[in-house]
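Researcher: Good morning. I'm working through a list of sequences from a screen, and I'd like to move beyond sequence-only analysis. For each chain I'm collecting a predicted structure so we can compare shapes side by side. This is the next one on the list. No need for commentary yet; just the structure.
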Amino acid sequence: MSSSIKEKNKRILVVDDEVDVLDFLKIYLESLGWEVTTISSTADAFIELEKKPYFLVLTDIAMPEMDGYEFISKIKDKNIPSQMALMTGFGYNPKHTLVKIYKTIRYPCLFKPFNRAKIAEAVQTAYDTYHEDLISGNKSPTEPDSQS
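Model: Good morning. Structure tokens for this chain:
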């Protein structure tokens, strides 16, 4: 993988209606070397996505104006080339409906309270996948990996 391609886009867009979550993720992800923009509404997120590319959109599922699933669907409809990851405050429970949905959509899902190692791993995986997809041209970066 060309380092010039890797260096072009280290931007993450975090969308959540909880300011504390936005602040935590911005501080933590920037400490790992990522460029982070935080936004508290999906409407503002669409405006931001029109301005510049982000390799990852990390969005909460439960938000007041539009849930994370609808938000991701609209990003895909607009052909915005970003990897996606979901966040939820429901906590991890293997029997929970969200876990079953996650297995269907195959986007990473981060459960609050956050595990820093899982955040770092999900972001790095999204970054690697985004740039591999751009180089190979095999699929749109907005499409989830078809492997389980």
